[in-house]
Amino acid sequence: MPDLRKDEKRFYIYFRMSIESFDEILNLIKDDIRKYNTNFRESISPEERFAITLRFLATGDSFYTIGHSYRVGFSTVSSIVTEVCQAICRNLENMYLPEPTEQLWQKAEEGFRNQWQFPNCIGSVDGKHITIKCPHKAGSNYWCYLNKFSLVLMAIVGPDYRFIAVDIGGFGKNSDGGIFETSNMGKRFEENLMNVPKPKNLPNHDEPCPHVLIGDEAFSLKTYLMRPFPYKQSKTDISKEKYNTRLCRAITRPPRT
Fold first, then answer.
1. Residues 115 and 81 in one domain
2. For the chain, how many structural domains are there in total?
3. What is the structure's pLDDT at 257?
4. Residue 19 domain-assigned?
5. What is the reported pLDDT for 195?
6. Signal peptide position in this chain (predicted)?
7. Domain final residue, candidates 95, 110, 126
8. Whole-number Å distance between alpha carbons of 216 and 229
9. Last residue of a domain, one of 95, 117, 143
10. C-alpha angle with apex 92: 88 to 96, nearest 5 degrees?
C-alpha cells in the first residue's frame, strides 16, 4: 500500500479508485471493520481489509489469488470481503442511494425534458446481468439467455446516467419485466408509494398526464411505465415510429451507468 500511494496512476489501475475516494470511503467504514489484536495474533488493519475487498471487487480474482498477494488465508479473504461489503452498504446506502423524494423525481424530469425532449419522464428502468459462479444446488435459476450464470441488477437511472434506485438479486433466468414487477421498488410503484410527483400538463396540452418511467419491450405497459410500440405497429404508423425513436433516445440504460 505505501508504494502504491506514491503513484496515483498505479493506485487507480490496481484498485479502480483514486486515492482520495479510497480514503473517503475508508474513513466512513473503518470503525465497523476494525479488529483488535489478541495475545495470539496481530489484527489486519482497516486499510488492508478495505484494500483486499477493493481488489476483489475490481478484478474478480479468486480468494486464493488475493490471499496469496496479501499473505492471508483464502477463508480470511472470504470473511473480510463479506464484512467490508456489508459495512459499505450500511454506511453509504442512505448517503448515496437515499429513498427517492418528490424533489429528486422532479429534478430527473427536468433533465429528461431538457436533455432528451421527453417530458414527464422521471427515470429509465432496465436490468444488468452480473456474472456469478452458480450457487450450490441452484438448478437453472441463475442460467440466463447470455449462456452464463448471473444475478440481475435492476436499476432506475436518471438523465445523467446516475442511479436513482436499485434492486439486486433477481434470478438470471427471469425477464427484466418480471424481475421489476416482483422487486420491492416495482411493488412500491404499483402501490403508489414512491413519492412520484402529481400528474402535470405536457407542453402545449391542457390535460394532466402522469409522470412515468421508460423501458424497453421486456416491460409491461403501466400507468407509470411506458414502453415502445411493437415493431409491426410502428412500421405502419408514422406517429408510433416517431414515439419509439424518441423513447429509445431517452432510455439511459443501467449497463452504460
1. no
2. 2
3. 62
4. yes
5. 95
6. none
7. 95
8. 10
9. 95
10. 140
3-state secondary structure of 226: strand
Confidence of residue 135 (pLDDT cuts 50, 70, 90): confident
Which amino acid would we find at residue 93? Answer: E
21 is a domain residue: yes
Longest C-alpha distance within the chain, in Å? Answer: 78
Tell me, yes or no, whether 112 and 228 share the same domain.
Answer: yes
C-alpha cell at position 150? 448471473
CB-based contacts of 117, cutoff 8 Å, min separation 6: 246, 249, 250
Are 83 and 110 in the same domain?
A: no
pTM for the complete prediction?
0.81
Whether residues 175 and 123 share a domain: the answer is yes
pLDDT of residue 134: 85
Strand-pairing partners, residue 163, are: 157
Spell out the residues 6+ positions from residue 197 whose beta carbon is closer than 8 angstroms to its own.
102, 105, 106, 109, 122, 211
C-alpha cell at 226: 411506458
pLDDT bracket for residue 253 (50, 70, 90): low
Same domain for 169 and 89, yes or no, is no
Q: Where does residue 60 fall: left (phi above 0), alpha (psi -120 to 50 degrees), or beta otherwise? A: left
Collapsed DSSP state (helix, strand, coil) of residue 203: coil
Residue recorded with cell 424518441: 246
Report the amino acid identity of residue 190: E
Question: What CA–CA distance (Å, rounded) separates 78 from 201?
Answer: 53
| CB of 107 closer than 8 Å to CB of 121 | no
* Domain around 163: 102-250
Single-letter residue type at 171 = F
**Distance (Å, whole) CA 97 – CA 239:** 37
80 with 128, same domain? no
